[in-house]
Design brief:
- It is a single chain.
- The chain is of the alpha/beta class.
- The protein folds into 2 domains: 209 residues, Rossmann fold; 190 residues, Glycogen Phosphorylase B (Rossmann fold), CATH 3.40.50.
- It has 16 helices and 16 strands.
- An 8-stranded mixed beta sheet has the order 11-12-13-10-9-14-15-16, sandwiched between helices. Strands 2-1-3-4-7-8 form a 6-stranded parallel beta sheet, sandwiched between helices.
- Strand 15, helix 13 and strand 16 form a beta-alpha-beta unit.
- Helix 9 crosses helix 10 and helix 12 packs across helix 15.
- The N and C termini lie close together (8 Å).
Length: 410
């Protein structure tokens, strides 16, 4: 059996890779290939999963849904021709007798159906939490949302219930239960986003050893996102927010852990720090100080930054969800986009519930953080909410076992 993974986004690629790595470890695993329909599939290439069919990075960077004005730029950049060639690729895959795993939203799901092959679907983009929580429908949501009885619209549910669809995995239990009531055989084995987030002892020691000992410490992780130039704009907002934190917590040593994506230019982040009055610490090229604040930039300590943090400031997508899953309160700051706009941040708050504290101005962050961190009942509720909405580690292995069983009988 040959299995083609069709995914439509950088975050979706990473989730898919976690699942495929677990799948190929199983005895008699299918031969794997990938078709990333957004970007060039770096996550697949790094994992040694061959890419079939054409790929291309379009002007929107995959955020055509965030800003409709990007659609024309993508069309001019070759979106229609690229999509037609990708449709031909999946069709040929189906004719050759292969199966498909669609990861993302309706676009890869529809491609999987179009292929004529048996397929499974891992839905990462939608959750019932956008519309409702365990107590009922969220106030203020327009009736046009979820008008078919679910966040998944009737035609999406038809694709998920098709006779060739052999498995549907969703991102939380609330969504699974809603779909099951509508006769879609969805299951929730957990969320692969929470896999591979263990903290290495040596890396933890490396980070904490950067700071001088102190009696009262506040540790904050900074997640500016992974795409240039937006991440640099977000970083400027974060530096303004940090000023409010230093002022609100004068009695503490504030330790700031900047988790910077390896693909980004660290020099731009350092220059912004120097321009706003941060001073480099002698002998530590990635460490800076200002007043009662000490900041370290890192490109390979993401999980450790999250585990050490008392709180998180984020202008990111997947990374924010992972921080919530680890039980952290996350303070978000909408920026100019194209991804982390106010609309995106508001939807993310609905998805992740009370774990997200949405602030509209950097100056608000310090007071909001103090209020949150001094409320032990609130912190406990945030930790429980994160586990409920994001699940525990190990989901990729459970999904791999389910997929292996499905395709072993094909």
């Amino acid at each position: 059996m040959d299995l083609l993974c069709v995914s439509n986004g950088h975050g979706e690629d990473s989730i898919a890779v976690r699942l495929l790595k677990q799948l190929r470890r199983l005895p008699g695993a299918p031969s794997l290939a990938a078709l990333p329909i957004v970007g060039e599939g770096g996550a697949f290439q790094k994992a040694g999963i061959p890419i079939v069919g054409p790929t291309q990075t379009l002007p929107s960077g995959g955020f055509i849904y965030m800003d409709r004005r990007q659609a024309m730029r993508d069309i001019q950049g070759g979106l229609l021709g690229l999509t037609w060639k990708q449709l031909q690729t999946v069709r040929q895959w189906g004719k050759a007798g292969g199966a498909i795993l669609a990861v993302g939203d309706i676009v890869p799901l529809a491609m999987a159906w179009y292929s004529g092959a048996p397929y499974a679907f891992l839905g990462t983009a939608k959750s019932e939490y956008f519309l409702r929580d365990e107590t009922g429908r969220l106030p203020g949501r327009p009736l046009t949302e979820g008008w078919g009885g679910s966040v998944y619209l009737p035609w999406e549910r038809w694709l998920m219930s098709h006779r060739r669809c052999q498995g549907v995995f969703v991102r939380d239990q609330l969504t699974a239960e809603r779909l099951q009531k509508l006769r879609v055989p969805a299951i929730y084995p957990g969320n692969p986003m929470m896999d591979d987030l263990g903290a290495a002892a040596d890396k933890l020691a490396q980070l904490t050893g950067t700071f001088a000992p102190a009696e009262a410490v506040l540790t904050v992780a900074l997640l500016p996102g992974s795409r240039a130039p937006e991440a640099f704009d977000n970083w400027q907002l974060m530096l303004a927010a940090i000023d409010s934190i230093l002022a609100i917590f004068p009695e503490r040593q504030v330790r700031l852990l900047g988790a910077i994506a390896p693909s980004l230019n660290q020099a731009a982040f350092k220059d912004a720090l120097l321009d706003t009055g941060w001073q480099p610490i002698a002998g530590q090229p990635l460490a800076f100080s200002r007043h009662n604040g000490f900041l370290v930039l890192s490109t390979n300590h993401f999980a450790e930054c999250l585990h050490l943090a008392d709180a998180v400031i984020a202008t990111a997508g997947t990374a924010t969800e992972q921080a919530v899953g680890l039980g952290k309160p996350v303070f978000t700051l909408p920026g100019p986009g194209p991804q982390f706009t106010y609309a995106f941040a508001e939807a993310q708050q609905r998805l992740l519930g009370p774990s997200i504290i949405l602030t509209t101005q950097p100056a608000e962050v310090g007071a909001a953080m103090r209020q949150c961190l001094e409320d032990s009942d609130r912190l406990q509720a945030i930790a429980e909410n994160g586990r409920r909405r994001m699940g525990q580690a190990g989901a990729a292995h459970q999904m791999a076992l389910a997929l292996h069983q499905l395709y072993a009988t094909h």
